[in-house]
Structures are given as structure tokens and as C-alpha cells.
Structure prediction request, 292 residues.
Amino acid sequence: MAVSWDLLINAVLSGLLLGGFYAAVAVGVTIAFGMLDIVNIAHPAFIVLGAFIAYWLNSSYGIDPLLASLLAAPFAFLGGRALYRLYYYAFERRGEESLQGLAFFFGILFIVEVSLLLHFGVDYRTVEAAYIGPSVDLPFSLSVPLRLLTPLLVGLAMVLAIQIFLSRTFIGRAILAVSQDPGALRMVGGNPVKVKEIAFGIAIATAIIAGALLIIIQPVEPSVGREFIGRVFAICVLGGMTSLAGTVLAAMILGVAESITTTFWGPSWAPAVAFSILLITLAVRPSGILGR
Prediction:
């Protein structure tokens, strides 16, 4: 029985650490899908792109993966803005974003994945950093790998920074306004298209940073992003679509659920349990955990 409790405690701890990473992965979807109503199915592909950017800068120039992601984030922000402009003029402006827009992002997903395959091949890639390998010892014989603790802290810090930006700045409040009523924002002189462009750029920048966290946790190859497509949207919906706090809470719940399931029943059951929690929550509370 003592062994079972030890396994349970370690599983919960591992799930909480994993949840911090899931929050970083899903925050961009919360912005794009929850706030802007853009079904960016290519978001996981940008996460993998961020992982390979971190790998390239780390292996070629010895730059820390986290620093590499911060250096790449401004370029990702500009690229995200340009991508939204293309999406807007091609689909959203004509009211064709529902099906054609979804196909557009599917195309972007495959373009990114195939480009990475052609350049890096199918081999798994890893990075080197001082926090990959060592662990922090905790009471009760618990040990926390720094490669999991670092993504947790960075992920929560990124979500907190975005929350402060949304609540304390003019552009941030405009993003919240466009998520609720674009027409009202237009009536007070705001430009919903410009605001959504900035917000989508932020979403892509968060994906690049999340990619660095991914390659810190595990080796990556170009198609690994497919594993996260359903998971990031599930976290967004479970948390309440537009709620960043809900995103963090949902990420923690799914992380713990997957970790416990993997520990006691095997990894093949983890996705089923996680999505069962999503379905049960939506049956009881359709707006999500912290949805309005």
C-alpha cells in the first residue's frame, strides 16, 4: 500500500509539472481560438517549429534553448501578424473562415511539417542546457527533474505575463473587447482587424516559446506536433475558451489525469481519460470550468 501511495504522489507531482507545460502549449490556442474565433489547427506545428529553432541555435551557436526562443519570439510575432493578414484577406473578410479557413490552417500545418522534414530529416533532436539532467530533492523522497520544473515555471510566467498584458494595457483590453463584441470596439474607434492581427501574432510567439519547452522535456521530430492537436483544443474548451486562468487549471487537470493513468494503467489509456474528463465537464458545465 505504501508503494501505491508513493506512486500516486509521484504521479500527481509529475502531472502538475506536465500541466505547466500544457498551459504554455495551450495559451496560444486560448487567444486564437477562444478570443479571436480562429481555428488555428496549425498551432502545434508552430510549437514544433519553435523546438527546432531552439535546437538549431543551441547546436550551432551554443545558445540556451529558452534564450533562443526569446530571440525568435519577436520574429514569430511579426510572422503571425502577416499570417493573419493573409487569412483575413483570403477568408475572414469574405465570411469563408469556417471551412476554407480551417483547410488553410491544415495546409499551413503540412507546409511547416514537410519543411522541417526536408531540412532536419526524421531523426529525433535534443538540446543541451544546465537544467537538463539534474533534479531537485524534496521531502518524502520526492525528486523533481529540472527539465520538467523549468517548463512549469516558464509556462506559468508566460501565462501570467499575458494576463497582465491583457488586463493592464490598452491593446490588451482591446483584445478582450474584440473577443466579446467587435462591433462595439469599432463604434468607439477601434480597428478589430488590427487588434486581431496583434493578438494572433502573440499567439504564434507563445507557440515558439512553448516549442523550446517541448524540446527541453523530450526529444522531438517534425511530426511530433500531431500528438498535441486534440489536447490543446481540449484544454482551451475545458478551461472556458477565453479564460487564461481556466487554461492553467484545465492544463493541470489534464496533466494530472494523464500522469495517474499512465502510471497505473499504461500510456495508451491516458488520452481516453483526459477527453472523458472534458466530456463530463462539458455535460455538467458547457461553458467550461471558468467560462462566462
In short: Strands lie at 135-138, 142-145. The chain has a mean pLDDT of 90. The domain at 2-284 is CATH 1.10.3470 (ABC transporter involved in vitamin B12 uptake, BtuC). The two ends are 42 Å apart (CA to CA).
